[in-house]
Amino acid sequence: MKLQRLNKGLVRRGLAFAGVVMLLALPGAYGQAGRRLTITAAYQQARQNYPLIRQRDLIARSGSYSVINASRGYLPVLSVNGQATYQSTVTSFPFSIPVPGFSIPKYSRDQYKINVQVDQVIYDGGLISNQRQTARTTETEQQQSLEVSLYTLYDRVNQLYFGVLLITEQLRQNDLLKSDIQNGIDKAKALVAGGTAYRSSVDELTAQLLQAEQARIDLSAERKAYLGMLGLLIGAQVDENTILEKPALPMLSVEISRPEIQLYEDQKKMDDLQVELLKAQLRPRLGLFAQEGYGRPGLNPLSNAFAWYYIGGVKLSWNLGGWYTFKNQKELLMIHQKTLDIQKETFLFNTAITRKQQLADIEKYRELFKNDQAIIALRESVKKAAAAQLENGILSAHDYISQLNAEDQARQNLILHQIQLLQEAYNYQNTTGNLQKQANP
């Protein structure tokens, strides 16, 4: 869908073009009525309409729930436990105490226990805090990854938007070309009526007019197709009456604001949080607990009756097994960070190459534009002389058409280079990541 490829097809059709200044003032049917659309609005609407953008809200909601869930780790934890067991043997005493009113208890082999326990974290080594930071960073990373996925969207808008602009200008040029040909037909008819020219001159010019009309039909169909694709992309009604405003040449920024750069930083931050998690897992945990239960036997070892009981205190736990793998796991995370640094450096290197090529193309189109203006001035002078010679019967219709095509081809090149300059400038802005600021201010 490149503009160069589109232009080559149009050149083969033998199209010619009129003056650039006259284009903007020419009344016609191309974009003279209907809604107006700017390229900035197209970027914004394309973002809003793209199905993937709906994932942004889901990512935000998921991140919010993850942070809330992590924060609830500081709340007391209530648990209910129960068991019923039958034992093959129980505690018994192999003696008796001959004391009146006192007997050694006999324990039942079926025993029952149910209790409710409440645990409260006092110190967890930083695990909960790490989980909350990880949830927030994960959300940021996912949002940035979404921006990376949306990056190619702006390039597609550029291709369609500037493609429509080019075809619209070429249609206007086609109208002026037909006007010049019709002017030649009128002069040739006058010569034929005066007996100073052959009818074949009128026929040759009429055939050229029909070819220009065929080119107009072809261009109109292509413009309609481009507008339809643009409309689907931005999710709005875009038809032949929609006015696509030609954007101004943007100020080229040297700052790189691509979403990939921030994504690399977010991924490195995730590795830092993983290192902190490893450290937190090596620290002891301290908490309070309280338990109330009912069962047989209770806490009294000399009673075999069902009884209520409660117990509470402080609980300390410290798992030292993490020390075995801590060093290797940390080293793996450091290796991953170095890999990310290399990927970022490679990305910036490739981006710099692309920028350099685009800047060279922009400068090329500027120089071509200057030459186009000089060529047009010369071709226009030759065409005026040819028109006068045709009117005086000293130039053939075929030679007149050749001069028309030569001038209009020069104007065609001017328009092409203008649009190419604009598109390459906006492509450059996209390469540096500054179009995203326009689409998502």
TrEMBL record:
Record keywords, A-Z: Cell outer membrane, Membrane, Transmembrane, Transmembrane beta strand, Transport
Family annotation (InterPro entries): OMP_efflux, TolC-like
Location within or outside the cell: Cell outer membrane
Primary subcellular site in the record, as a coarse category: membrane
Pfam families: OEP
Source species, domain of life: Bacteria
PANTHER family, A to Z: OUTER MEMBRANE PROTEIN TOLC
Recorded family membership: Belongs to the outer membrane factor (OMF) (TC 1.B.17) family.
The name this protein goes by in its record: TolC family protein
